[in-house]
Amino acid sequence: MVALPESPDAFREATWEEIAPYYEALATSPLDHANVEAWLANWCLFESLLSEAGALVSFAYSCDTSDPAREEAQLRFGTQISPKAREQRVRLQERLVQLDYVRPGLETTVERFRNQMRLFAPANVPLFAGLSKLETEWSKVNGAMTVEWNGEQKTPSQLLPFLESTDRAVRERAFRLRAKPYIERRSVVADLFDRMYDLRQHVAQNAGFANFRDYAHIEKNRFDYTPDDCMRFHEAVESAVLPAVERLMRRRRAHMGIDSLRPWDLPADAQGRPPSAGRVLPDAGFQEDAPHLYERRWRRRRRAHPAARVGPRFPLVRSLVASPPVSTPSRLGDG
After folding, report:
1. pLDDT digits (tens, 9 = 90+) for 246-258
2. Closest by alpha carbon to 333, among 190, 70, 72, 141?
3. What is the 3-state secondary structure (H, E, C) of the chain?
4. 22: burial class by Cβ within 10 Å (0-12, 13-18, 19+)?
């Protein structure tokens, strides 16, 4: 079987040329009913390590979208590795399906593999790369957004606690300021949206679908219900739930003593009580000790899964969040 690294960190700076041999080995190694379980375990572990590496790269970029090195790593994974890995994944799925090996507990996996094989279109590989590039651009635009609050530069996310203020004027000001950078950059955001929309439509058409909604529904392996079922559910919610929501809104308006509810009136307590101790308070900022939380989570995971390869990545994530606070300029938050 394929010899794999001990940690996903080994793949964080890898190029596709360094990743491809792992897929090639899995695609060409002998496969039969006698060794298929070991082959599946090896493939699963490889995909887990690669996925973890991509997640760490993505997390690092979300912590600082202004860092060119982190952006380059994000683009490398998103535009070079992930689309080609998707293609190779279908190749491995075909091996298992053609082997005609199914055991109890594997039926759903095989069904999903067959579905992904049907959906795959070689013409979509460069389109997925293009979509990833646009998504990275959106993250950079979003991460750069800041507003001035009481003489300090804050991200839109940092204004969220103020929406729970008992002072309606403070809530309105926070709501409008959070929307301001999106309005100011509307043309940029709209252009990215339009370009992503066009690419997604092409992806769907290449896979034989009329629109991306129908494609995405099947791509998510949703076999038990259709988009039309979702629409009927929406209609049921509108007829059965919306009247109850309207009653709740009338009650809220009465409790707050106002003529009409505005968007900034919804997060606050209807009876004017301050945010509970369990919620993030404005004066607390975003000062939670993130590295400490990761450390505790790491220790719990090690106790629960002592034999799993979970150790290396948690200290690595801890190091990524050790310096910046939870929300800072160039750190991806809203959107």
Report:
1. 999 999 999 999 9
2. 141
3. CCCCCCCHHHHCCCCHHHHHHHHHHHHHCCCCCCCHHHHHHHHHHHHHHHHHHHHHHHHHHHHCCCCHHHHHHHHHHHHHHHHHHHHHHHHHHHHHHHHCCCCCCCHHHHHHHHHHHHHCCCCHHHHHHHHHHHHHHHHHHHHCCCEEECCEEECHHHHHHHHHCCCHHHHHHHHHHHHHHHHHCHHHHHHHHHHHHHHHHHHHHHCCCCCHHHHHHHHCCCCCCCHHHHHHHHHHHHHHCHHHHHHHHHHHHHHHCCCCCCHHHCCCCCCCCCCCCCCCCHHHCCCCCHHHHHHHHHHHHHHHCCCCCCCCHHHHHHHHHCCCCCCCCCCCCCC
4. buried
Per-residue pLDDT tens digits for 28-37: 999 999 999 9
